[in-house]
Amino acid sequence: MTTTTVTTMDSCLVAGEKTSPTLQPIHSDQIRGLYSSVPSGVAAVCALIGGQPDGMAASSLVPVSLDPPLVSFCVQNGSRTWSRVRTAARIGVSVLARDQSGACTALAAREGDRFAELDWHAQHGGGVFITGAAAYLDCVVESEVPGGDHRIVLLRVVAGGSTDCAPIIFHNSRFGSISENDPTATE
What we know:
Elements: E1 7-9, E2 12-14, H1 28-35, E3 40-41, E4 43-49, E5 52-58, E6 62-65, E7 70-76, H2 80-85, E8 91-95, H3 101-108, E9 120-122, E10 128-130, E11 135-147, E12 150-162, E13 168-171, E14 174-177
Antiparallel strand pairs: 1-2, 3-13, 4-5, 4-8, 6-7, 7-12, 8-11, 9-10, 11-12, 13-14
Keywords: Oxidoreductase
Protein name: NADH-FMN oxidoreductase RutF, flavin reductase (DIM6/NTAB) family
Family: Belongs to the non-flavoprotein flavin reductase family.
């Protein structure tokens, strides 16, 4: 294998030929930075607990299966929020829209009332949804699997719907969106 010197320009790799970076062992303190280079959507995972909305932001929502309809997300081991939300009969998953960075921040807060400034609604069964989201999934917990310092949660989708809103994207520790007018975007 030949290595080539690669120049970084506008955060993209530029070289006279296709090339790959030289891979090096990664240390645990570097892994968060490496993972932040993977863009992801942000979802609100919420339910009514004791008659009050409870929930969190998750940037790891992934479609898993069409038949049966399943999605997954990851939650940190020991999450007190997830320990409460997982007990609900139904869990609302709102794929947050590009103008909802405030909702992302509120739902990721460690303290305070996460829902104080949010417009939300509950469905029959207790799933809570953030108004104005790009998509809504009404779910039940299918299973949970250990995954290092997180748990992988598999949710069965029992109902859902989408809007014309574009989703928010989390990349390099910042919120953004995919632009349909971006000439570098692929179709």
